[in-house]
Design goal:
Strand content: 35-45%
CATH class: Alpha Beta
Number of domains: 1
Oligomer: single chain
CATH architecture: Roll
Distance between the termini: 25 Å
Order of helices and strands: EHEEEHEHEEE
CATH topology: 2,3-Dihydroxybiphenyl 1,2-Dioxygenase, domain 1
Number of strands: 8
Length: 127
């Protein structure tokens, strides 16, 4: 068994898509209309056959409430691995990404957290 797709609730799919592709650098694998929303799945440019990140609309009240509460508490919705967190921090900062936690050493890991502008905090980590 392996993880094929993981979902991330977003407030606005049209806003999230360019942020996750143009700013973060993910590659759009699927963008299929599904009723009033879309099945938007992204992949890492280095693993295009790997796990897909689904930009899931937070249209359901439970999804909206969940997203709102973890954001209010400063809890990252997901975590992405990076090879060089300081380089990634600089690149993203130069592209206007707002960090709530700058690169910080935590044991054997270094983490940073940013606002995705779509209702989530995202953590990046370097092992």
């Amino acid at each position: 068994m392996k993880i094929m797709v993981t979902s991330l609730f977003v407030q606005d799919q049209d806003k999230a898509l360019p942020f996750y592709t143009e700013t973060l650098g993910f590659v759009k694998k699927h963008d299929v209309p599904v009723g009033k929303f879309r099945w938007i799945a992204l992949v890492s440019p280095d693993e295009q056959d790997g796990t897909e990140l689904l930009l899931e609309p937070n249209d359901h009240p439970a999804a909206r409430e969940y997203q709102k509460k973890i954001f209010a508490d400063g809890i990252p919705a997901t975590m992405f691995g990076v090879a060089d967190i300081h380089q990634e921090y600089e690149r993203l900062s130069e592209n206007g990404v707002k960090f709530t936690i700058e690169p910080t050493k935590m044991g054997e890991l270094t983490i940073a957290v940013f606002d995705d502008t779509c209702g989530n905090f995202i953590q990046i980590v370097q092992k």
